[in-house]
Amino acid sequence: MMKFRSTQSTFSKGVTIPSLIFIIGTCFLSAVYPESTENILNGIKEFIFVNLNWVYVWSVTLFVIFLVYLMFSKYAHIKLGSNDSKPEYSLFSWISMLFAAGMGIGLIYFSVAEPMQHYSSEVFADNHYINRAKQAQLYTFFHWGIHAWAIYGVVGLSLSYFAYRYRLPLSLRSCFYPLLKDRINGKWGNVIDVFALCCTFFGITTTLGFGVVQINSGLQTLGVIPENNFTSQIIIVVCLVSLSVFSAISGVNKGVKILSNINIISVIALLLFVLVLGPTVFLIGSFTEGLGNYVNNFFDLTFNTHVYEKKTLPWFYDWTILYWAWWISWSPYVGLFIARISKGRTIREFILAVLILPTLFNFIWMSVFGNSAIWFDLNIADGKLSQLASNPDALMFRFLEYMPLSTFTSFFVIAIIIIFFVTSADSGIFVMNSIATKNAKTSPKWQLIFWGLLLAVLSLLLLNVGGLKALQSMTLITALPFSIIVLLFIVSLMKALIIDQKYYERNFSASAIPWSGEFWKERLKRIVSFKDNSSVDGFIQNTVKEGFTELQKEFAENGIEVKINQSENPTKIEMEIHHGVVNNFIYGIKNQEKTVSEYIIHEENLPDLENNTTHYPKSYFGDAREGYDVQYFTKNELISDVLKHYERFLEIISEEKNEMFISSNANQGKV
């Protein structure tokens, strides 16, 4: 029986079946009709990029603003988990894992290619080569900087907050809890998870394709394989996916963590190698100047839609908008993985680590490799590297030929690409299984193997028939609706954070301040019972009215005239002391209605409640101050409360500095 349970599926049919139908159907169309599918999807993508690019621009801008606001807000101290929870991973391991999952192969693939392509672009061709080099670094920083990580940060923060603070499943549907409540467990929740699962699968599949092509190109450049053919691609895919599945089966605490740590150490070693043996002084100076250039142009870059520069619009669509769409389409997967490893961090700590540290490393990395390539192109290569700008698969390896130990470093780069892919794919397999099972605590290992096999088979199928570009277009198209979803995450998260903060800041009710142990039995009965309209009216008619009448007589004996105002039905009663110059003193009680949480209605350990509304007597005053619940007051405590407010009133009106405020003719219109 135990063996059977260990192999029994934990897949959620409502998520897994629709996802597989859509994934397999899309890949089938891309494989059987690659050109037609690519043309249709490209047409949709182009329409979105040209006509709706402002959605991406505004969305990404709002993500950045929101995270910066949270980092300095009163919510920054809130933990992603209970108040006493501790981080599960060390700072180094945590940053290594989120970094490897967040950027991965792209850092190797684009570190030389993107700066060189900007540098060689016709858009900047009219500029002097120095300005072209500066523009290349600036836009590379822009595309790989704060804006990219803000997308991941919003998704990851929302997921980890609701998973560990609200103890909901680690699923995108949980981010809608404040908006949808228990409906997240129904069809709407399934739709959100299906969307996330498809985005994750498509993103990893296209990345696998890029990784295979670059590894293949590197091995061909080094003479390991004679040509770039499908047989070598099969071998590479089988090896990469097998390693990824093995790592995923080992779990986050073993395979993913160990590989991520190895990866970041290897990347730093390669970075230092190029920095020390390359044009070191030029690189340090260009990084410093580039960082200042980025800061100075930050807002212009953020809001620039190039609407006045028609010449640069195609470049804008093919680079900035494509990048924003690409990062957004990857955010379900990266956000889920970041959330998985971020329990116990504070919001400020999370944002600093996710937004600032990877951004700074990306800037250093892109400066060292991109600026080295430009320097070599100008001073050593005689323009040969810029001529290869249209062939990014081979550009990194051609660049390394101008470095010492080029053969060794090329093999080292291939090893890093493999580790990068494995760390991305194993965490992706883990995330896909988590989504498909609605975050089941334990799942049979065959499910992880299933996702790995599906990745391998479909990616090879698309590589063989040339359908990978169609799948990439589909991935970019899904970014548009998901950008709206992430904006709703912000609304949902803010709503939850406001409630969270008020929950821990809320003090005892004002009505509890005068309590002693004298009437504890009576008070307990009142606390655990819900009041209907008639019982609150009875409290006002009896306890409150008796107290006001008794107090009115005592005021009269001290020469002060008090008027008791009461509406026709006993839902409101007030004491009023008239004044000619200053505002009247008013202390009143009214019948107030409030809505009760649905959870309380069905709670077995509390008294029954027929509907979701209850009533309570609430105080109010002659000024704009907020009143409070007085249902637990005895008659004498109520009289004492009135006298406290009257003493406060006399204290205020006796101070000369308050003359202008208290004589503001506020008595007009009093009932």
TrEMBL record:
Primary residence: membrane
Superkingdom to which the source organism belongs: Bacteria
Keywords: Cell membrane, Membrane, Transmembrane, Transmembrane helix, Transport
Subcellular location: Cell membrane
InterPro entries documented for this protein: BCCT_CS, BCCT_transptr
TM ranges: 12-33, 53-72, 92-112, 141-164, 191-213, 233-252, 264-287, 321-339, 351-376, 411-436, 448-468, 474-498
Membrane topology: Multi-pass membrane protein
Family matches, as Pfam families: BCCT
Family that this chain belongs to: Belongs to the BCCT transporter (TC 2.A.15) family.
Protein name: BCCT family transporter
Origin species: Chryseobacterium paridis
